[in-house]
Amino acid sequence: MTTKQDAKAKVNAAIKRCEAAEKAWQDAYTALSGSVSTNGYGIHHNRYELRDKLLLAQAYIQESLRALDGIDWPTDAEYDSAD
After folding, report:
1. 3-state secondary structure the chain
2. Contact status, residue 67 vs residue 24, Cβ threshold 8 Å
3. Which pLDDT score, from 0 to 100, does residue 83 have?
4. Residue 13 has pLDDT above 80, yes or no
5. How far is C-alpha 20 from the geometric centre of its chain's CA atoms?
6. What is the pLDDT of residues 21-79, one digit of tens each?
7. What is the CA radius of gyration of the chain?
8. Are 3 and 81 in contact (CB under 8 A)?
9. Interatomic CA distance for residues 54 and 6, integer angstroms
10. How far apart are CA 39 and CA 42, in angstroms?
């Protein structure tokens, strides 16, 4: 592979990882959205509803962090070469 091809491959790989990180982040946001039903005392009707939302969001956050940690971030020169 040439240097230009290497740079383009590195940029494309970073793009895919960033997209994966953003998708997992959006999934975490969605997992946390909505409300949790409570009774007149403010006690949850379903003791697991909020916990499940939090655990799901946590899993998506971890997925997003792994995607970010796995990025081999392109340098300015590689961005220039990839064009």
Report:
1. CCHHHHHHHHHHHHHHHHHHHHHHHHHHHHHHCCCCCECCCCCECCCCHHHHHHHHHHHHHHHHHHHHHCCCCCCHHHHHHHC
2. yes
3. 83
4. yes
5. 6
6. 999 999 999 999 999 999 999 999 999 999 999 999 999 999 999 999 999 999 999 99
7. 20
8. yes
9. 40
10. 5
CB-based burial of residue 61 (10 Å sphere; 0-12 exposed, 13-18 middle, 19+ buried)? middle
C-alpha span between 14 and 7 (Å, rounded): 11
Q: Which residue has the tokens 């982040």?
A: 25
Q: Compute the distance between CA of residue 59 and CA of residue 25 in angstroms, rounded to an integer.
A: 10
Neighbours of 52 (CB within 10 A): 12
Distances from the Cα of 60 to the Cα of 24, 57, 66, angstroms: 5, 5, 10
**Amino acid letter, 78:** E
Q: Distance between CA 46 and CA 37 in Å, rounded?
A: 7
